[in-house]
Design a protein that fits this description.
Distance between the termini of chain A: 36 Å
Strand order of the largest sheet of chain B: 6-9-10-3-11-12
Distance between the termini of chain B: 54 Å
Largest sheet of chain A: 2 strands, antiparallel
Number of strands of chain A: 2
Number of helices of chain B: 18
Order of helices and strands of chain A: HHHHHHEHHHHHHHEHHH
Structural class of chain A: mainly alpha
Number of strands of chain B: 24
Oligomer: heterodimer
Strand content of chain B: 25-35%
Amino acid sequence: MKTRLTELWNATNKRVLFMFFLMALILVVFNALSGGFILRAENFANLIRQVTVVAILAVGMTLIIVMGHIDLSVGSALGMFGAVTASMIAQLNVDPILAVTIVIIAGFLIGCLHGALVYYLNIPAFVVTLGGLIAYRGVTQYVARQSIPVRTEWIKAIAQDFTPDYLSYTILTIIVIVPVVLTFVNRSRLRKAELPVYTPLWIETVKLAVIALIAISVIVTLIQGGGIPVQAIILLIAGVIITFISKNTPFGHYVYAIGGNSQAARYSGISISKNTILVFGLMTMLTAICGIITISELSAAAPDIGDLKELEAIAACVIGGASLAGGSGAIGMSILGALIMASIKNGMSMMGVVAQTQKIVLGTVLVFAVALDQWSRRGKSR
Amino acid sequence: MALLSIKNLTIEFPGVRALDDVSVDFHPGEIHALLGENGAGKSTLIKVIAGVWSCNQYTGQMLIDGKEVQFHSVRDSSDASIQVIYQELSLANNLTVAENIFLGYEPRINGLIDFIHMRKKSGEVLKKLGSSIKPDAVVADLTIGEQQMVEIAKALSRKARLLIFDEPTAALPEHDVERLFTLIKSLKAQGLGIIYISHKLNEIKVLADKITVMRNGCVVSRYDNSNFDMAVVVRDMIGRTLDKVFPVQKPCSQEVLLKLSNISLVRHQKKIINDISLECRKGEVLGIAGLLGAGRTALFSFIYGVFSGAHSGEVLFEGKKHYPKDPADSIARGIVLVSEDRKKYGVLTTGNIRDNMIISSLKQFTRYGVVNDPRSRKECSGYVDRIRIKTPTLSFGIVNLSGGNQQKVILSRFLMVKPKLILLDDPTRGIDVGAKQEIYALIHQLASEGISIIVASSELPEVIGVAHRIVVLQNGQIKGQFDHGTTSEEEVLGIAAGVGA
């Protein structure tokens, strides 16, 4: 039995385990401190709502950071996209679906512009996106100089409604079953190719069981409290798709390669221009989606929406272990980072801690988390 | 009394025991050579001595003058008068030569940095080394050979009782090598202890007083200059006897694959290549012999599409006009370049072996936009076996491999794209005897499959031995052409150095 446990221990990703443990700790501690409000079903839904935007931004930001860049324009761009969408619908009488589509495409194109400026004019991403941060905030403040109300029902539903129960159960089933299917398919492919299958079946089973357990407990709790928030589905889809892209497509490989050593990547025949433009296009497109989610949350577009969101997204990635030097980082971990920050915030709110103090705490937690990460990496590489 | 004494040193990293109960003594006034294949543990031993690996990370003892020492950092060893000149250069590229030489030990005047003293002293050290490098030059603008010279100047400018050279001549031109040897011998005469690591056995023969041979992290044998036999030493190093170094050649076809006509390359108003015409046939191994600065790397970067300068002349590839555009285009046509500076242009430091190998050939493994994991792993394992890359698994981080093994991974990367023409720039730099032979055999095997290979190297025996035809490059021009077996090292060296008509 002892050797089984040591085997299991060796096979686990210590970082992921630590992050989950930390989250659980945070939830339990705050639950006790706030008199049992955290682990309530209604609060779970709140927590998920609070984390969605930063998490989606962190998904895109991970790829940007892995490539060795940064995107500071994200918060202001989010505001701009939200304001423009609201304005198009309320003031220009554009059909909401059309408005949303236009804004998302515009997001992609603007991101591509960022990437093109970075690559072709050799302007550091920091500078290009800093310019964006300033300029787009100006656009937001102009378009939404008086708050624009959002009345479109389905847009409001994104951040305020829940998915119907039957859909939630379907999603739960998918989340539980798909990893199992994938695991078996993968193992049979490896076996067919006569390659060694590194992880024994029982360890994989344990991992799948853990995933299933967490998914079931979270989703059932959510359903009790009203259901899965619609925006969480968007986060789920975005997270899954982009994680898949980053691990399994050439584009994903190239992003990591360019971040690791851009000269070597170039000499290996990788197109730095195409991949840079795409990475930024993707980020700003996700930002546009977040802009729409945000105006849905508020049922309005205000001049200051999205303020400082880029810093929260970067913090999430960094807590999740991404290196600002480029070349390393994982999307799942960044989402976990966002969750950790959000649960601390949520806990403090439940305890009645004022916003000012919350900021002090979060800033400290960020530095502490990275220090911990660096400490755990000591002596690992040459 | 031994200057430095290593006793029972053992150090382990995840997956590998790099040093296993190693004991060696180094004496003053002695050149002690450390030999072994890549991965044998030589560089690790040096890192322990230099304090890169602190005393907390190993078991065993280090004694200086009979007293035990514990180094926690590189500064400790430097303060103990131990200086190292590394194989992988460690200079700050954005600073000047003088600033690098005095990095960390800047001379002060009234609490501020004394730049004048710095410039003067670094100029003196460089002059003593016989180098023409200016102290104000920015390191990033220097070639590898010049950068190495700065490294040596840096080590010599600190107080040193023990000097460690890790493959110092890998990128030095021949006449600098001579000067270096004279310098090392004079340092030995002054009473310094010298540890010398090199794969060039002929250098060891000339320089070394003592030899210690390592294999797989252990010391396998020790010799005195009086009693060592090259063949025996090689056998100790690789654990098997080495037969003929260069494989027998198969004749190549007459069909011309690459034709350069009147190529001139200009960069920063300097004509680096001056009106060169040459051909490479299908299945031919063409050797370009030349000293540092002759223009080999420039020529290669031009053909590959990464040359930053103006060019004139015509390139025909497979009979069609070819405008070298960028690496992606070259790879698509079947031309690949294995660069001489793998740290800068080759290794993806944050990746593992598999990532580094498949990165140029991802399209091969991609179906419906998805990269096929099992197939790519199989290919990689194939290359690991074929070229004998020493690594526990495919997911091992590439930075943990020895220099030579890293080079093998990069080579695999470019073999995976199934090239028609391979440009090899100094391919066996920093690679040991056993692996060198494997690479020569590989070159010949590829040639016999119809792949053309152009090998550029300043290691003349290598170029002469492995190529069907040799072209000698001197100062941007072709000054000699020979078929295999019709020339000697001295003749080629003479032409390459510009001696005589």
